[in-house]
Design a protein that fits this description.
Elements (H helix, E strand, L loop, with lengths): L8 H19 L3 H7 L4 H8 L7 H10 L4 H11 L2 H5 L4 H21 L11 H29 L1
Helix pairs in contact: 1-4, 4-5, 5-7
């Protein structure tokens, strides 16, 4: 069962403001430039970043995009991890990987599973996530081994 206390408006607004503020500060851009690119008034941006005003979904996506971060990945991370991973992964290759991975996953599941897509059980999610992470780790290890071999040969 979902803990509804996690969705108190003031806390969600404060957490989202923390993410957006971290993105703005990490971008190295002037707030007025971010506001212009995000198509939001600079005072509205100031109030959003201070947690005084809730950002709409579109505004949050545009602010993140104006900060040159993967907007969908960061909002998804914000939703599933209370913002901690979203802030920690700002402007990282891992965030871009996560954005591309989440974008591709639904169609990959449909393509690979076909008619079995409706047989997937929610209880498999945790184990599948760990298996994907192990598979990715093994892939990185294999690439490092290949790079080492090529360096020795060259």
């Amino acid at each position: 069962m979902t803990n509804m206390a996690l969705f108190v408006e003031q806390q969600v607004r404060a957490d989202l403001a923390r993410l957006l503020l971290a993105a703005v500060e990490a971008s190295g851009r002037a707030r007025c430039d971010i506001a212009r690119d995000a198509q939001i008034h600079k005072d509205a941006l100031r109030r959003v970043l201070a947690g005084e005003r809730s950002a709409s979904l579109g505004e949050a996506l545009r602010i993140l995009a104006a900060c040159s971060v993967a907007p969908h990945a960061h909002l998804l991370l914000f939703l599933v991890s209370n913002g901690d991973h979203a802030i920690a992964w700002l402007q990282s290759d891992l965030a871009q990987f996560f954005e591309d991975f989440c974008d591709e996953l639904p169609s990959a599941l449909e393509r690979v599973l076909g008619s079995q897509v409706h047989d997937v059980k929610p209880r498999w999610a945790r184990g599948t996530a760990h298996r994907v992470a192990r598979l990715l780790s093994d892939h990185i290890d294999e690439l490092e081994r290949r790079d080492a071999l090529y360096a020795e040969v060259a």
